[in-house]
């Protein structure tokens, strides 16, 4: 059994893979956290923490000064009745007070994993893959019930958590804070890792020791954002890539989030994660409920790589969905950096002809094909083909591309509207705004109000008409503006602070409908590159444009950091022109290719302007990637050298049966008279011999324990890529 309850000790024990998660009921129904870590047979709660009379820690039972919620490790804590740490939830009553008291009422254990209504979440294909525990806590005075939802996966060290609020009383309740999870660790002797960044340098790894007080990663931008990612990890001091304990927390949500760790006066650490309480409330009328999104918690005793591999496999096979979940992704070329807005049908077809000759499989038409969209100052929302540029429409262009042996894909940005557009002139209240205030613009556009059902219905039908008009097999779904003036003309005053979350629920409804109507289309999400690279998006769209920054050297850190949580099959990675359009750097076509081939491979450049030598090299890259892409997209990924720690980066992909592997090595800057160096590989069979093309035959044990000597190369921005195949002795 993955989940058990002992009525004598009042203890819940969740067994997930090779990990245990233990809770226990104390006193009159307080739910305490006892243990989370490597699998154990049993844990006695009374042995896990000592009860002491702590000064300035009040007591809910005045007769026992050794019991305080301020020192009890809890599962879903409140504020106001002796716990001074950050609460998991907060509710305001009609009398204005915010004190609540949740106690255990009942629980149930069952096989499988339920869907979360209107929200993305991990899933099971067979009920035997997981067991779910629901613990119902109640406040008898006000009729509030909170159901804590836990699912323990059988195969992985994974526990998912969420919470559902139900108002079973007679008065209105207002949620001020509704996080998805909280865990109290008995010590704060950890480092914390998060993934900060900015546009063009997303998901850089930052690691530092926990300190007293609150450390947090959060977004208030209306999206998970370039600046932060909805992921944090607690890491043992001695943990590195391949050994030591790691606790990962990943939020399956695409909007405003909070992920924080509070270290208290007793050096314990409280981790909490969920919808950001900033500018959030939710009104619960009697009989209404509210569902929080899911947090995916991963335990690893094999370092960061162990945690990452768990997230990769889970998110690739039990979060991503649809026909493309397990299918090899096509090699594409996007016209954006080749033409920007300046194109016509003839120009596009000429580009496509050259691409087809080089073996590229998918041509993607980016921004500028609709309305009067000759620049980024107009026409978003007017999803009608520009016949001046495309006289034969999307269908005519797509058929010409198909005749060349290529598939046809399209860029859209359905969440935005230009003030200079027919849609805005007809429906000025369809954007996010507040009364009597100016409407801030970003990239000359406003955000459509997806909290409105009529807006969502319009987008579903309008974009469906576009996608049904031509043989389209790929869609890049972009979003290039964060939210300001967050309000909705369709909501009453007391619900205005629900707008941002209602937007996400509307967006998820639109995406669910679109991907269901067009299951043959590969959808890729994008937000100015990686501004919404999160698990919520992966549930609907199995890959994401990793960053608008296509510079190969910049991408070393971006792709390395992204791999901490997200599978390689989710990462779009393309070769672009030099000097690079974002940073001006000149890297060789070889290096640009090796970096891009470490994800879902493609190109963003005007291929007609390349030399014959460059075209032949691209042809070779395309052929090589076709041969190794299943290994790259679905193999087991190992990080070998971190670009955040030195002048080099390296990673590798290993097949499930360990019969083949692909290794990529990169050095950023040249060094005079540099020492010899060796690269130790991972994940191979130590008893198997492997042939490395151009280097000879090595034992798997030699490659992993002694390493392979790195050939000397001069120059900056150099790379090497080796393919390994098992050979018979």
Automatic annotation (TrEMBL):
GO biological process, one term: carbohydrate catabolic process
GO molecular function: alpha-galactosidase activity
Catalytic reaction annotation: Hydrolysis of terminal, non-reducing alpha-D-galactose residues in alpha-D-galactosides, including galactose oligosaccharides, galactomannans and galactolipids
Domain called Glycosyl hydrolase family 36 N-terminal: residue spans: 29-285
InterPro entries: Aldolase_TIM (IPR013785), Alpga-gal_N_sf (IPR038417), Alpha-glycosidase_related (IPR050985), GH (IPR017853), Glyco_hydro_27/36_CS (IPR000111), Glyco_hydro_36 (IPR002252), Glyco_hydro_36_C (IPR031705), Glyco_hydro_36_N (IPR031704)
Domain Glycosyl hydrolase family 36 C-terminal residues, every copy: 648-724
Top-level enzyme category: hydrolase
Enzyme active site: 478 (nucleophile), 548 (proton donor)
Binding of substrate, residues: 199, 366-367, 443, 476-480, 526, 548
The entry's keywords: Glycosidase, Hydrolase
Catalytic activity, EC: 3.2.1.22
Family: Belongs to the glycosyl hydrolase 36 family.
Identification of the protein by name: Alpha-galactosidase
């Amino acid at each position: 059994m993955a989940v058990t309850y002992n009525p004598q000790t009042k203890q819940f024990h969740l067994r997930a893979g090779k990990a245990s998660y233990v809770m226990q009921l104390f006193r009159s129904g307080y739910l305490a956290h006892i243990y989370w870590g490597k699998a154990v047979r049993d844990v006695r709660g009374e042995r896990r923490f000592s009860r002491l009379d702590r000064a300035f820690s009040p007591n809910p039972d005045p007769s026992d000064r050794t019991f305080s919620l301020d020192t009890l490790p809890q599962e879903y804590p409140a504020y106001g009745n002796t716990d001074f740490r950050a609460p998991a939830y907060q509710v305001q009553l009609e009398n204005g007070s915010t004190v609540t008291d949740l106690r255990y009422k009942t629980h149930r254990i069952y096989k499988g994993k339920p869907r979360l209504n209107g929200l993305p979440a991990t899933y099971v294909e067979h009920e035997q893959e997981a067991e779910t525990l629901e613990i119902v806590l109640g406040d008898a005075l006000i009729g509030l019930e909170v159901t804590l939802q836990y699912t323990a996966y059988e195969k992985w060290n994974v526990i998912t958590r969420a919470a559902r609020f139900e108002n079973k009383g007679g008065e209105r309740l207002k949620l001020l804070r509704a996080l998805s999870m909280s865990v109290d660790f008995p010590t704060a002797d950890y480092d914390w890792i998060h993934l900060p960044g900015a546009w063009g340098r997303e998901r850089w790894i930052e690691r530092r020791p926990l300190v007293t007080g609150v450390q947090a990663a959060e977004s208030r931008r209306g999206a998970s954002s370039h600046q932060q990612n909805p992921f944090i990890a607690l890491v043992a001091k001695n943990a590195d890539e391949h050994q030591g304990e790691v606790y990962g927390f990943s939020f399956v949500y695409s909007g405003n989030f909070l992920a924080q760790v509070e270290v208290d006066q007793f050096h314990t650490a409280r981790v909490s994660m969920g919808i950001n309480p900033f500018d959030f409330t939710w009104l619960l009328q009697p009989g209404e409920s509210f569902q929080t999104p899911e947090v995916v918690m991963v335990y690893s005793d094999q370092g960061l790589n162990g945690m990452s591999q768990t997230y990769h496999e889970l998110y690739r096979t039990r979060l991503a969905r649809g026909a493309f979940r397990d299918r090899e992704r096509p090699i594409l070329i996007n016209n954006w950096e080749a033409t920007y807005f300046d194109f016509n049908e003839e120009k596009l077809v000429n580009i496509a002809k050259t691409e087809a000759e080089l073996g590229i499989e998918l041509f993607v038409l980016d921004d500028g094909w609709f309305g009067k969209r000759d620049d980024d100052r107009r026409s978003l929302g007017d999803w009608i083909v520009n016949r001046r540029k495309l006289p034969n429409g999307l269908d005519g262009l797509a058929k010409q591309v198909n005749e060349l042996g290529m598939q046809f894909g399209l860029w859209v940005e359905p969440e935005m509207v230009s003030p200079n557009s027919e849609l805005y002139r007809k429906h000025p209240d369809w954007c996010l705004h507040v009364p009597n205030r100016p409407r801030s613009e970003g990239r000359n556009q406003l955000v459509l109000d997806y909290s409105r059902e009529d807006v969502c219905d319009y987008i579903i039908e309008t974009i469906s008409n576009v996608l049904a008009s031509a043989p389209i097999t790929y869609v890049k779904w972009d979003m290039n503006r964060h939210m300001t003036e967050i309000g909705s003309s369709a909501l009453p005053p007391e619900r205005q602070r629900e707008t941002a979350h209602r937007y996400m629920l509307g967006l998820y409804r639109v995406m669910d409908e679109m991907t269901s109507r067009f299951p043959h289309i590969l959808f890729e999400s994008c937000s100015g590159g990686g501004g919404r690279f999160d698990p919520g998006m992966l549930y609907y769209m199995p890959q994401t444009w990793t960053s608008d920054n296509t510079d190969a050297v910049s991408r070393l850190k971006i792709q390395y950091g992204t791999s901490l949580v997200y599978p390689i099959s989710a990462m779009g990675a393309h070769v672009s022109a030099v000097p690079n359009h974002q940073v001006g750097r000149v890297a060789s076509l070889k290096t640009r290719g090796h970096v891009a081939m470490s994800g879902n491979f493609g190109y963003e450049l005007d291929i007609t302007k390349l030399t014959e030598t460059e075209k032949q090299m691209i042809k070779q890259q395309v052929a090589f990637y076709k041969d190794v892409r299943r290994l790259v997209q679905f193999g087991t990924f190992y990080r070998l050298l971190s670009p955040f720690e030195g002048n080099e980066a390296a990673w590798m992909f290993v097949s499930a049966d360990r019969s083949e592997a692909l290794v990529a090595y990169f050095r950023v800057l040249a060094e005079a008279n540099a020492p010899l160096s060796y690269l130790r590989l991972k994940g191979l069979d130590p008893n198997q011999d492997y042939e490395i093309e151009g280097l000879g035959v090595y034992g798997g044990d030699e490659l992993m324990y002694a390493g392979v000597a790195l050939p000397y190369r001069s120059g900056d921005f150099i790379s090497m890529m080796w393919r390994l195949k098992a050979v018979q002795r």
